## 1
Amino acid sequence: MTRAALRIQVSTSDAGAVHDLGETLHAFETFVRRAPFAAALVDADYRLAAVSVDWTAHGLTPDLQVGDDFRRALVNPEDLASLERCVEQGDAFARYRAVGQGAPGSESRIWRTEFAAARGEDGTTLAVIVTARDVSGYAETALRAERDQQRLKMALELDDLMVREVDLRTGEVYCSGTSPELEKWCVYKNDPLDIVHPDDRDKMAELMRARKDGHAQVFEFRLNRDDGVETWVRSVGKKFLGADGKPERLVNLFKDITDRRRQTEAVENLAFKDPLTGLPNRAYFNRKFQEAVDASEMMGELFGLIMIDVDHFKDINDTLGHDAGDALLKRLADMLHAAFRAGDTVARLGGDEFAVILRGLHSEADMMRPVGALQDLLRRPIEHGGRSFSVSASIGAALHGDPDADPTHMIKNADIALYRAKDEGRNRSVVFDPSMRSALEQRVELLRDVRAAIAAREFVLYYQPVVDIGSHAVVGFEALMRWDHPEQGVLTPDRFMAAFEDQDLSLKLGDMAFETALRQMREWLDHGVEFGRVAVNISAAQFRSGRLAQEVHERLARWNVPHERLTIEVTENVYMGWGSETVSETVRQLHQAGVMIALDDFGTGYASLANLRQFPIDRLKIDKSFVQNQEDAAIVKAVITLGSSMGMKVVAEGVEDHLQLQTLAGYGCDQIQGYHFSRPMPAGMVPGFLEGFGR
Ligand code: C2E
Ligand code: CA
Ligand code: CA
């Protein structure tokens, strides 16, 4: 409106309707003074001729009086130039944005000042009408938009982003950005899937179908590049709606995330892959298992879980070496891949433990078919280092079908089935059945009872004599644990074997056995009972701390019992199992101190005597299963010969009759332990037994 008013006045003058210069100026002066906006009139000599009320009110030229040189008010040289051009060349409209100072005390404002020349008929400038408009609000918005624009540009540059904007009405595509690689891909015309790698298209198409107008959507996909270079792109896209509510613009941002993707992959490989077999690890398995549980809960999907444990893996590792063990695990991973469907999650949970999650099953048969295939594959021998060896696996399976059951129990159920498969002799698969749980519950109950019985001091030691064949003298006793149960009477270890297999309880029982045996020896020593040596059985768990030798020394010292009075019995499985270095070191220390070392249950494990040579062994105890089985006579004979040749004394366990005794004596066996001489007896009966023996 302001400018329109000016234009009328100026054009009036241009039209030359007024001839008298003074009159004309006067008319302008009047106009300016009455103007309902900020205006000033400057004559051809730059003198301020008139100002409007608003001009004064806004304090636009507070220091100027009418008649003063207007140029003094123009601090900006460009403003000055504009004014001069306006006066001298008569430029009809010279505009300039000047920053003026508002009224004293008010915040600084932005004024847009326009100069309009009023010219006479000859084209000379009569005067200049200066108008000023407060454009602060407008300018700020413009400034802010410009800053946003700059910021966006900086962000795009910094982040190597591509922007693609499509006018959905005209189909016009606009692209900008700084990544030349992406730019090529940004200009696709029709189908956005054209730029997506074929392998990622289905996934993308699905995501795009699900997208809602007006919502931002993020995709990550590989570009469909002819040169085969893998380029990962992250894209965020949004459709903007027009005033009519219909999609108007589609804006997409693209970013090359190949590097990040590679890094994440590397990290994920570290976090989710077992380096040896390349299979997913336990963390990944847990994730997938949760997904299966969710799917089953939401859609009632039937899924199966299979736990696989290599039979006697430890022995393979110990006897054939870790290389062979690793080769076996890798071969097994291949077999698992071959046996199960591509969509099944095959994971290595650790050690020789593998698990498979099978989703989308229809029946138990669906689950067991690949298990059968795996067992077929396992029957083929594995070649390693020019040798071939055979392996088997125990397999536990559980199926989640009952929608009311808690699917998270699946892992426990499959474990129970696996436990059962091992218990039934390994090399087989067992599908979980709820009745199996009770067996496990019984075990848990037993461990609880044993714990209470330890506290109630219900465990005692019985002693079984060891007799030297040559001298026919009692050379010692083996301390054997008994549970003096308040209701069930005296129980042998086969009733609480699970306690010896439990890490925590076997330590407690071992402690108790040691302490009790030492107290007993002290007592017999004090009473002059000639018991020889007492043999104490040591479980694997007791070696684990690495402090066993130390503890034995301390205990012997505390009870003042000489080392020469003690024998420890260690099974070959303990020698060959986990931490055999610790075991070896402990045994060596004890042996040096005078403790006798007996190798227990010889022949039942997988170690050969050659493997055991590194350990100091004084006594070789032939397991009673060999002694009692006449078909094993040759083995017994060979073991006795071998043991003697290696400087060990050989003890035969489980000798129940005179015939067995004679046979063993004939083979050159040194010592005998068995019901033939005596069953294990309470400590109180030992002095009487010794007195009566040999009479
Ligand atoms: P083991 O160390 O092999 O002990 C010998 C087992 O053979 C004892 O069984 C003993 O009673 C039995 N035995 C001895 N002579 C004969 C015989 O002529 N005929 C038959 N049929 N059996 C005979 P027990 O006392 O039931 O102990 C079983 C196993 O429990 C032991 O086998 C040992 O492995 C374990 N055990 C016993 N006490 C302890 C202990 O204090 N600590 C540890 N870690 N294990 C123990
Ligand atoms: Ca023993
Ligand atoms: Ca034994």
## 2
Amino acid sequence: MIGDFTYENPTVLHFGKDAVSSLGGEVSKYGRKVLLVYGGGSIKRNGVYDDVMAQLSLCGADVTELSGVMPNPTYEKLLEGAGVAREHDVDFILGVGGGSVVDYCKAVAASAWCEEDPWEKYYVRMEEPSCRVIPVGCVLTMVGTGSEMNGGAVITNVEKGLKVGKVFGPALFPRFAILNPEYTFTVPVYQMVAGIFDVMSHIMEQYFSGEDDNTSDYIAEGLMRSLIRSSVAAVKDPHDYEARSNIMWTATWALNTLIGMGKTEDWEVHMIGQAVGAHTDATHGMTLSAVSLPYYRHIKPYGLKKFVRFAENVWDVDAAGMSDDNIADKGLAALKAWMIEIGVVMDLSSLGVTADMLDAIADSTFLLNGGYKILSREEVIDILKESL
Ligand code: NZQ
Ligand code: ZN
């Protein structure tokens, strides 16, 4: 481990088929007035809403509902939610849904009592809240983002053409997360696979940084191996509980800060993917899969040793008699074969991107310095072109 760090994670996890039975007890720790937040209604169709309401009534909660949180939640919707939370002076915000709902709850929790423009404060100046923050908890129904155990709160500002991820401190991490793999069985296959690639990308974007012998990288390799195995099983049979539960648990540990400890972390694929998302509203995980192979081919020469390790330790590439470059290529070829096998989107055209959009996407791409190569704008354009 090279970097110094402080590790803290306050989220309590309740995992398994009966996890929701802990919900009432958890919510009642924070007060009676609960803002129940959800998305477009999947929770009403699959019975999760009924399970949640039964628990909330058991603990005597006074519930205000806020629905219609869209995938890639917008700044406009954030302002609406902040207004509702303030008007009802809620004690607690419970998100029931995927990463969009959970991210949104954190942004609302930080914005309800914020006296400044939350976009400027959190998404431009990247400050922590200086106002009262409402505690948040969640019942997760879609796996991928890790939002259930982290401070991430990604918001899209349609007017500005920006999709920005604010990472809040532990005060905004969910106080608890209810993780029942069965709740994810009704997720459409396209979304399930997008979530799986999102998890892979989170792990890779932490793994592909630094050259030290870092415990975090060994954990990352184990998580990737489990994800690859379980994802193939889940695609064959989406009701395979063992596979879905492994994927859920892997997703949580992929982005709850653990495997980033002592590392600089890359995150450039997410920066490009988020810029694509800002201009297309495409599904998050697919924006990452569409640009990943061109990106990794591009940075491979700058982090060759790690690409060799990736090939050998994650994909079991037999390195005998091969050059480092060839071994690294075999690793990327194995990644590509797995992506095709599980069925992720492999190019930007499939997400509605056309050549005349590339300049605007490059303009919306933040350039970071934690990976093996700081990209120039021209390199972003090259990667986008290759991804088309
Ligand atoms: O709106 P509903 O009805 O809930 O439908 C959702 C939505 O249409 C549906 N869905 C969720 N659970 C379901 C279900 N449908 C049937 N059955 C279920 N059990 O799935 C669709 C996608 O949901 P969404 O929440 O948008 O997906 P995801 O979990 O991938 O979240 C994506 C958002 O999270 C951000 C992304 O940028 C994007 O805005 N991220 C958050 C991160 C974080 N907090 O750290 C990191 C990630 O890198 C990511 O950027
Ligand atoms: Zn992601």
